[in-house]
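for the writeup, i need someone to sanity check this before i put it in the appendix. the sequnce is what the collaborator sent (i think, or maybe the updated version? ugh). structure was predicted straight from it, no edits. if anything looks off just tell me and ill rerun, i have time this weekend
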Amino acid sequence: MTARSPVGRAEIALLAALLFTLPLLEVPKQLCWLGWAVLAGRALWRDRHAPGAGLSAWDAVLAAMLGAVLLSGLGAPAPAGWRGAGDVLRLVSVPWLMMRRGYRAADCRVPLLAALAGVAVASLWGLARVLTADTPVFLQLHSVGHVNHSAIYLAVAIGVAVAAWVGIAPTATARARLLIGASGLIALVALFVSGSRAAALALALLLGLIAWLTPFPLANPARDRRRFRLGLVAVLAAALTGYLALAGFSGRALQPDGAGLVGKFRLQSGDGGGLTSHRDRLARLAFAAGQAYPLFGLGVDGFGRLTPARVCAEIAPPPPGGVCDTSGYTFTAHAHSLYGTVFAEQGSVGLAAVLALLAAWAGRLRRSLAWARADRDAAAVWLAALSGLVITAAAGLLNTTLHHEHGLLAMTGLGMLLSASAARAVPSQRP
């Protein structure tokens, strides 16, 4: 660790305000991020000559994420340039600044609670709109947008609620415990209403991992594990009951297409695209685009500019005298996959950067598991980071994760882990 100046209350307050407004209000969250980044950056500049302030492997991992976006589209016709760099800059700035500033696990309590308060308000707002709209609408968190993005955000936030429950609630006030429990339950109901299969499956994987690992202090391991696992089942049952009650008493469909979460797992007809909702066709198109521009891809947002004519002329032209058949592709704004979208738009360089980030993230979690099992504040940070990783990586198979609001929430968990585990001198400072 470097001899950094302590993280002040104003810095914690601005980070908490950012996480509270993140799913709610567009301009305030941008101002909160900017204010927090300026304050943290100013402190870093003041400490720039402190011992141990040199570069680490994590600096390279985060810089690679930004560099891949800046290089995306190199060699492709009409690339988007640096248009996507702003979002990635925000994503990498949070873990980088937290890591450099030396946040302790205890410093992360208020920001985690603020994130839960924000998602609770946003979920209630979204549920109210679903129940009062003149025509059926999908559930959306106000400043997150599309139902799939909102569902990903909810899944990460539910993991944060579990983190706060085992790490913060045991020593918190009754009001804080009520906030944690109610936020998690409300977010679960909202996730069921969203009907997102990718987010639901990723959350199931996350909760299964948490139940298996039980990464928090246990006074009586056998008894506490059993109680925790039964508690998870009880909360899921309560959320499902709430969802069914909402659907029954409201007297209206909670999804515009009339298909709830379970119904979406059945084979769909017509324009539904079958069980995969065209994900197979999108993956095929992303792979073709990545093959056409293997190093740096099409450029940011390039997938959304693909057309059948462009595929036939540039991406996958037919052999001489052959007929170009694009019926195996689906054309839309993105590939509905983190990996497919990155490969198509940033090429193998971008995909390597993302995979390196996820691998380094998992490695830090593995090496700090014992720390989480020894300290409750550490457990809260560790589980928040695990939630960000699992939802990003698993839901990313079927949706484009790691960008905008849900990406920022996930990367904040990573920042907490990097900073707090280093502050506690976790063995090995490798990523």
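Residues 221-250 form the longest helix (30 residues). Residues 95 and 411 are 6 Å apart (CA to CA).
thx in advance!!
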